[in-house]
Amino acid sequence: MSTSKTKENKYKIAIVPGDGIGSEVMEATISVLNELDIDFDYIYGEAGDACLEKTGTALPQETIDIVRNSDACLFGAAGETAADVIVKLRQEMKMFANLRPVKSYPNTNALSENIDFMIVRENTEGLYIADKEEFTDEGAIAKRVITREAEERIIDYAFQYAKDNGKSKVTGVHKANVLKKSDGLFKDIFYEVGEKYPDIEKEDFYVDATAMYLITQPENFEVIVTTNLFGDILSDEGAGLVGGLGLIPSANIGNDGALFEPVHGSAPDIAGKGIANPIAMMLSAVMMLRYLGENESADKLDSAILKVLTEAKVLTGDLSGSATTMEVADEIKNLIK
Predict the structure, then answer these.
(1) Which residue, of 176, 211, 241, is where some domain finishes?
(2) Is 175 in the active site?
(3) Catalytic residue list contains 232
(4) What range does the domain containing 88 cover?
(5) Of 54, 236, 299, 313, which is the active-site residue?
(6) Which of 163, 167, 227, 274 could form a disulfide with 222 if both were Cys (CB 3.0 to 4.6 A apart)?
(7) What is the structure's pLDDT at 6?
(8) Catalytic site includes residue 128
(9) Is 307 one of the annotated active-site residues of the chain?
């Protein structure tokens, strides 16, 4: 999950601020990254609603090339064109794994103090493939594609993630009682792959039961692996467990690249006011640092964020504070120094 680079290297980071609050949380995050003892070379690319209006395309080829030729990408937010930007980038870069950590932090209205699990979501197939959806005389049809190759890859990734991160259990989530062929295949592959990891406990639940268990016993999960649509829905439920989307980072990982983004969207209602919570973007940067192998710096930034949340003196309005986006960034920079 990490590159082979060391601190002596300069990292080429693609920066795609996107729409709405994307540019604001990105500016705050870059100001924090610049306090770390790492040499970053930032290359900016355009994408999103404003880019579509300006250039006629939501995701120019130039931006795709910038992402492809970088060590990692930080993405801010996309508005109405999210499917044309993020989904296309995932497909172009073959980023097959979407990682959504769900972790409770202090002073964030989390449902429990002991929530800490990772949702590993398959990113390339399922119902989210645009050319598998079409109108018919009767209405519309969406084709759900589940392949052995893609599901073996994502399930193995989830088990390897658990092994590498000291997790003792992986939960497979499906609906094999109804989708007997497609999700039946997923369930079979889950246990087949799991045999390679004898020290890790395996369990599987139906997706509807999982939705309930996330509310009633969220502390019991460590790593969840599931298909595209189910992972998307459960990830937002997970965000609700720990204080909302303003605190949730994500990663999109492939063999040839990685993109890191907060999941809160462009939030046009507060864009331009300087009050957006930058912590999800900063936690996405923490995930990027770990991907790059910069674990010491990742720990330093993560600890600074935790201290700001614990002290609760400099928080944005969504966390019942009154600080601006850059005031939160300044506080975290001071802690890093």
Answers:
(1) 241
(2) yes
(3) yes
(4) 1-102+244-337
(5) 236
(6) 167
(7) 47
(8) yes
(9) no
